[in-house]
């Protein structure tokens, strides 16, 4: 085998390995842990805390704000995409908040979508992982 042929074979092998590693990282997004962010509503800033447990591609946990704590449902992580729902009740009306996004290191970037008075609403959220200090 000539040197240029060996080089092409080496580059092809490297590309295959890099693709496999990247696919494994995307599929294995580490979502488990505690995440926090703040949001402003009616000129008041409130802290939101999301606690997530992860078993394979299944996510469970809860989300808490000053109004209380609610379990997440239908939680999953597939191909690096995180998704879950939070159903809350306001004045006897149930609202389904759909969260989707990706983990980027210690940042969880989410889009929240819901419907209010027949109109679709959405908000972008950037949550930070809470790290244990030891």
List keywords for this structure.
134 residues, alpha+beta, eight-stranded antiparallel beta barrel, 19% helix, globular
What's the short version?
The protein is α+β, with helices and mostly antiparallel strands and 134 residues long.
**Roughly what percent helix?**
10-25%
Give the radius of gyration. 20 Å
Cα-to-Cα separation, first versus last residue = 55 Å
CATH topology of the largest domain: Lipocalin
CATH superfamily of the largest domain: Calycin beta-barrel core domain
- Strand element count: 8
State the strand order across the main sheet: 1-2-3-4-5-6-7-8
Q: Helix segment count?
A: 1
Q: What can be said about the biggest beta sheet?
A: 8 strands, antiparallel, barrel
Structural category is: alpha+beta
Q: Oligomeric status of the shown chains?
A: single chain
């Amino acid at each position: 085998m000539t040197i240029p042929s060996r080089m092409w074979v080496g580059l092809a092998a490297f590309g295959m390995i890099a693709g496999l590693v990247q696919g494994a990282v995307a599929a294995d997004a580490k979502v488990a842990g505690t995440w926090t962010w703040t949001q402003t509503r009616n000129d008041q800033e409130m802290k939101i805390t999301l606690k997530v447990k992860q078993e394979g591609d299944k996510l469970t946990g809860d989300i808490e704000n000053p109004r209380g704590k609610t379990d997440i449902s239908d939680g999953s992580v597939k191909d690096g995409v995180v998704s879950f729902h939070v159903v809350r009740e306001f004045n006897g009306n149930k609202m389904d908040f759909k969260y989707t996004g990706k983990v980027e290191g210690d940042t969880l970037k989410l889009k929240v979508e819901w419907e209010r008075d027949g109109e679709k609403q959405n908000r972008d959220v950037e949550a930070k992982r809470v790290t244990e200090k030891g």
